[in-house]
Amino acid sequence: MLKKNLVFLDFSLDNCFFLIIKNKKNFKKNLKKISKTENIPIIFFEFIKKNKIEINNNFEIFVNIGPGNLIAIRNSIVLAKMIKIIFNCKLYAFSNFDLLSLKKNKAKVLISTKTQKILMDLKRKMAKKIINDDLKIFQKFKINVQYSNKDIENLIYLKKFNKKIVPISCTTM
Predict the structure, then answer these.
(1) Mean pLDDT in each 10-residue stretch from start to end of the chain (173 residues)?
(2) CATH number of 5-158
(3) Which residues are within 8 A (CB) of 74 and not within 5 positions of it... i.e. 6 or more apart?
């Protein structure tokens, strides 16, 4: 179990959530039916108020920069930077490439969002949007992405985070 105080934000795919670990206690909020990701900061601050979580400069913030739902990713980056500025926390970025390379031994995976399908080459760290006509060709790479606390812990212990915190766009393979 992680001993650190951290905020983990992942709004890149359809299973949007944030996880707060404070003094070895987990607080998690799943946002499966979020209509406007612009409301993420409001939901976040209501959540910490309701659970009486006091964030301070001992926290580390980890935000997923994609690839995935670009608007939701940008909004979660805004929240992460806001928390960093308000509470003087350390901010780190990770990508779905990092998480999926921990989880799967496959070279390529197909992930889905509400609006798009993305084929990811984990070795070359490249992503490509797949149109519906080509979906049958890449169906064998499809995975259902769900992260456990152990996956998050392994990611944090790797200490391979991006210093430049901007969303990763889909590039062609």
Answers:
(1) 83 88 92 81 95 95 91 92 94 90 80 86 90 87 79 81 70 52
(2) 3.30.420.40
(3) 167
